[in-house]
Amino acid sequence: MAENKLKLSGRLAMDFRKNWPLYLMVLPVLAFYILFAYKPMVGIIIAFKDYKPALGIWRSPWADNHGFYHFIDFFTSIFCKRVLVNTLMISLYDLVIGFPAPIILALLLNEVKSASFKKVVQTITYFPHFISAVVICGMVRQFCLTDGLFNIIGGWFGLEPKSLLQIPGNFRMIFTLTNIWQGVGWASIIYLAAIAGVDTGLYEAAALDGAGRFQRIWHITLPGIRPTIIIMLIMRIGSLMNVGYEKIILLYNESIYETADVISTYVYRKGLLEFNFSFSTAVNLFNSIMNFALVYIANFISRKFSETSLF
Amino acid sequence: MKKMVCLVLALVLALSVLTGCSGSGNGSAQTDSGKSGQSATTDSVYPMDGNVTLTLNMDDYDLDDIPDYAKEHYFWVELEERTGVNLDFIGSTSYAAEPSQEFLLMLSSGEWPDIIVCNWVGFPGGPTAALSDGYIRILEDYKEYMPNLFKYLEENPDIDRMIRTDDGQVYSMPWLREKGTQVGEGLVIRQDWLEKVNLDLPETMDDMYEALTKFKTELNVKTPITFELRWLWLQTAAASISSPYNTLYPYYIWDNEVKYGPLEEGYKEFITELAKWYKEGLLDTDIASIDKSTVQSKFSNEEAAVSIQQYSNVDNCIKALAESNPEAKVAALPSLVKNSGDTPHLTHYWAVFDGGYEMALSATTKQIEPACRFMDFMYSQDGINLCAYGTEGVSYEADANGNFSKFTDLVLANESGDAPSTVRNYFAHPANYTYPSRDLNYFVPDNIKDMMKTWTADMENYWFPPVTLSVDENKVYSAKYSTLDTYCRENITKFILGTNPIDQWDQFVAEIEKLGASELLEIQQAAYERFMNR
Amino acid sequence: MVERKTPGEITLNVFITVIMVFLSLIMLYPMLYEIFVSFSEPLKLFRHRGLMFAPAGFRTYAYEWVLSDKEIWTGYKNTLFVIVVGLVVNLTLTSLGAYFLTRKDCMWHKPITILILITMYFSGGMIPFFLTVKDLGLYDSLFALIFPTAISTYNMILLRSYFQSIPESLVESVLIDGGGHFTILFRIFIPLSLPAMAVMLLYYGVGHWNTYFNALIFIKTKSKFTLQLILRNMLIMGSNLDVDEQTAEYEQVVESIKAAMVIVSTVPILCIYPFLQKYFVGGLMIGSLKE
Hints:
The structure holds three protein chains of three kinds.
Chain A: H1 2-43, H2 56-59, H3 69-75, H4 80-98, H5 100-111, H6 115-126, H7 133-144, H8 149-156, H9 168-196, H10 200-208, H11 213-224, H12 226-238, H13 248-251, H14 257-260, H15 263-273, H16 277-305
Helix pairs in contact in A: 3-16, 4-9, 5-9, 6-9, 12-16, 15-16
Chain B: H1 2-18, E1 52-56, H2 68-71, H3 75-83, E2 85-89, H4 101-109, E3 115-118, H5 126-132, H6 147-155, H7 157-163, E4 185-190, H8 191-196, H9 205-218, E5 223-226, H10 239-242, E6 251-254, E7 257-260, H11 265-279, H12 292-300, E8 304-310, H13 311-324, E9 330-333, E10 358-361, H14 368-377, H15 381-389, E11 396-398, E12 404-407, H16 409-412, H17 420-427, H18 446-455, H19 471-497, H20 505-514, H21 517-533
Parallel strand pairs in B: 1-2, 5-8
Antiparallel strand pairs in B: 3-10, 4-8, 4-9, 6-7, 11-12
Helix pairs in contact in B: 6-7, 11-19, 12-13, 13-18
Chain C: H1 7-38, H2 42-47, H3 61-67, H4 70-102, H5 109-121, H6 126-135, H7 153-164, H8 168-176, H9 181-192, H10 194-210, H11 213-218, H12 227-236, H13 248-282, H14 285-289
């Protein structure tokens, strides 16, 4: 045992003598991770305390119920089930509608024969990616008003004008479509790149065999980009319970909390608007653990059924 | 003697309101500016020595933005000069009834200014929590540095009672409003349109319904009535339309008892009526998703016929309307009533003291004495005059006793064309009321003043005062209230929008009972009784 | 490639073209609409029904108001500072980290890689993050928008993938010549990865441009507000920048002012973006090289 240790420390010392410039290079990177990723993880401890800013993290008293007061508080809260369901539902909308959209766009773009037309379309579809969330949400709010753009268009199809962001049933669709509008072009880049990597010889062979365009897409292009799709899918499934608050808090209002309030927005309101730091951190911790589990499961499944996995 | 001074001051104020400030035209006697403030009791000497710098959580100003005529005697510059204190503004202002997010983050950052400005009554847990959690200090402990404040409180027992905690602690420099300026917003209606549809000014909820319907059907007005939905949650902001049902959200006093709106039958009727309006397209269809500027712009652009407006905004709306449509006529309406001929009770209400703009001494400051003396300056006669009127001989003229007599032409008829209230706000404290009080109406145009008179009712009997909770009560309250409040706001909104059918109201009440509505009401009742017995 | 122009093929081509044109219109119209609203006269705007294909009336008041507002320029200045300084920090740290991740022959490679990967899936959460940044003295400093977001692990791994595609023989030749890791990184890896670096620039740059939330929680002094924070207050909260400017005219044209702010805050991106596109299309491949 002692010998092993000696050996190990000896090896470490040798490694350090040889690689110290490398370690010097990684030092600022490590500092970043320790300061901004690991130090906050230590701060999670306030989930088990009654955090008082005047006392600081360490001097604040432990919460009741062996420190689990805030977790129990959350699980027994009337909002618990709702925020969990909403988070999952928004993710599912995004998965079912949002995930295929850039793939379809990439396949369509690939079928555009004129290079210059293709480039124009690409330029235009990438553009919304560069508009900030605040501006997009500001526009969507205006468009959703009773006399807003969406209702004008809805009117062509005989729909009665309604304030769209006041109807709980609408929110998920509006949110998902907004995300698609902003992200579809940008997200298609990765698939276009994957398509470009497919062996063109295969297409020629297929064309000689008399395969139509749909058949070529189905039998050559799609299988060719399958690894990319699977990787993206794993990442998406891994973040099923991880819906960002940045856009939602710009869009929602009290009348649609029923469908729009997700875990992260709840954490935001509880923590930063109601000053309930410990409770908010407890909810956040619960969410993080769920996320971690989901990523692990998604990766496990993927490894089992295909060759591709994240780690 | 001091009382006399106050009386005279009040009289002068009252006179100047009545006469619209003609004043006695007495040439400004160049009195020593510190004279009246330092008579008798105070041992503070201003300006203070020692080059003190105090930090405050208010937004910093930029002297470049101040017009040249006001640069030299700009309020904050002048205040620094007279007190001998350098002020360092660190931002994170919180003026609203509920503390702003910036403010809460500043508190949690642990970097507190010497003087913390906030509405402590609206602080989570109230002043008791702010004291027990160790943000601020009890001012009573530093009484010797604050002679002016404590003298004022001694002379005004009714104010004194209001601003203390149940334990009898003074925790802040209170901001007070002049008596008689308690209403700041109410209903306004397009009178010219009323005439077009041959109706009198609506008095009851039914009248209003009829008028709104006719606006919609006969004049094709797109949004017959609009206001900000959040006003329903701000205690008295929407009182002018809930008044026929004698109810408010959340707490109010009725027959010496604290009531919680959503538990009352009247509140259900009120919401039922709003839901009816919404369903028929009378109430703004976008009510839950619009902001204040949209409400203003709808009324100014002839989109809306009835609105709840603040006195300071309605003036702009009227002017904008006049520009585009010379026939437009806007009338104020008193709060609505149940039966024609009834007297309305509930209306918008600005209490003399409601916690706004309170300055408190931070628990971490090392400059207790200068900070206390600085704050106390606001309650000296010199400080009162400065906050209310600005600099003597520049923005106002004083009578022989050094008291305010009238504003100068620099304020009343500025060459730049700036409105008098704008100019005054450069020289005096820019908020619309001050330490300890000043006349809010000074520059309000007559037509708006009449509107404010129309909106007035005997609201002081029904308004829920700033009670304080004990530490134990606070524990229950803070654990339960925010959930209850979120649940109520959300569901009441949905009742109005028709997302929740109104026949589910009983289930809603059962649910809020489960969330502790009655339990919290009992806590408030006990706190109210303690408040009344102070 | 043999291409037979059957009628079916032609129909398909037309069909795809129509879809693409339609899609482009959807992408562009909201911005055009904002342009029309920003130039409209208030009363005509309110009376307007249906889609807009030109401003209702013509008035530039909204732009005069927006452009004469000092806060917007301050916001621009602060945002620019965050982007420029932020990008320098981002690119330096990310390439250092990515380079380390490609050096598998040192003993600490695996522990450090794991340490980094964990943070992709687990974080402290909003409040502890806030408290940490505050403890570091970054509260109310523009650096709070720079250091805490200095590395995106995802981007760093992308860059590592690109680095990995560089032949190991080049590294060995430098080592034989007596060069060190710094030489390898700055003389070989970075010059050979310019397209990837352009993509990094773009990813981080867009990130800095888009976020408002960190500014919302970390910045309290008005003179340090970023553009997005000012936009949020105006577009979402409906509170205009300066209460004193709430004139009768303002009440009427507020909708146009909001639209003008949207345009003023988007136009710079519109101008820069076509030039950027050239670069990031060159770096497209790194996406598919991941892992």
